[in-house]
Amino acid sequence: MSQLVRASERIYLGESASVALSLREAEAVSLAAEPTSIDELLRAGFSEPEVSNLLSRRLLEYVDGTDRNLWWTYNWLRAYDFFERVRADRRTHTGPEAVRGCTPHRTRSIVNTLLKRRSRRFFSKTSVSAQALRRITKRLQEELRKEPCFSAFLVVQAIDDLEPGCYRLSDRGEWTAIPTGAPQRLQDSAQGMWWVRGGGGVLFFAVNMAPFKQSATSARDYFQALLALGRLGQTMLEELYAEGLAAWMTPAVDESVAAELFDINSRDLDVLELLKFGIPRALSQKGVRGV
Questions:
Q1: Are the beta carbons of 45 and 23 closer than 8 angstroms?
Q2: Which residues of the chain have pLDDT under 50?
Q3: How many whole angstroms separate alpha carbon 272 and alpha carbon 268?
């Protein structure tokens, strides 16, 4: 029986940020998203030198039959669904030309994004630079112009040139302090999740519900707005990764506490998503939660 390999754990832990894959390499890594035999890689058209190269670069690793699937270990089930579709398509073809022909156009970019991801729930207390925040804010403002029903809030924990506290992004792209905010409710607004602590800050995205209440197609429009909110979060995740920051996004927001956090009095404005970001803390320093 051929030895099993899988995509390296480095990929899932965000430790491969400097790696860039060719299309062929991305295809091989996607095939090995779950334990896969070397024979299966060879049958799919990859050569022994190609497989050996990925193993030597620690992008593939040897496993035994008892190893748990990494997609479940790190709860990346949506990404797994995508790669499983790729695998299913490939199983109906043989040879290198067929492999290239049945690969979705975006496989390379998606796998490279996976390699560069810095999804973390452990953050250093080190401050995020003011320059990084300016670039992040510029991109956020550009995205918000596409969706006028969205607005953004920020809890500053440790960012240069900004005092800790609660802020709202103005139409001019400036973070305006909310003196009546309640930053001490941050963890409560995140359903008690400890990982929102640390340096950097926490972005919150809100939706103005008024247009959906007045629309005859409100249910469908609201659903589309939620999809757009998810795209906004993913766009900002990638922007944060590009700055070398770590981040974690979740829709698990307590809306009533978030309203108190930012002193939101409007019944039409609902905070539906948060994105914690900061300097990534080394994996070897995970001794204390939320540091």
A1: no
A2: 1, 17, 75, 78, 90, 93-108, 283-291
A3: 12
pTM reported for the whole predicted model: 0.61
Q: Cα separations (Å) of 239 from 80, 126, 172, 196, 203?
A: 23, 19, 20, 19, 13
Q: How far apart are CA 199 and CA 123, in angstroms?
A: 6
| CA-to-CA dists, residue 90 to 56, 79, 264, angstroms | 25, 17, 51
CA dihedral 204, 137, 124, 271 (to 10 degrees): 0
> Contact, 104 vs 30, CB < 8 A?
no
Q: If you compute the radius of gyration of the chain from its CA atoms, what whole number of angstroms results?
A: 22
What pLDDT, on a 0 to 100 scale, did the predictor assign at position 138? 96
Q: How far apart are CA 49 and CA 35, in angstroms?
A: 19
Token pair in block for residue 54: 């990925």
The closest alpha carbon to 18, from 103, 112, 144, belongs to: 112
| 43 burial via Cβ count (<10 Å: 0-12, 13-18, 19+) | middle
Q: In angstroms, rounded to a whole number, what is the distance separating the alpha carbons of residues 124 and 122?
A: 7
pLDDT in tens, 78-104: 455 555 555 555 455 444 443 343 344
How much is the pLDDT for 214? 65
Cβ-contact 198, 256 below 8 angstroms: no
Which residues on adjacent β-strands are paired with residue 276? 202, 248
pLDDT at 209: 81
**Per-residue pLDDT, 124:** 87
Cα separation of 11 and 74, whole Å? Answer: 11
What is the spatial distance between Cα 150 and Cα 269, in angstroms, rounded to a whole number?
A: 9
Longest dimension (CA), the chain: 66
**What does the alpha-carbon distance between residue 206 and residue 203 come to, in Å, rounded to a whole number?**
10
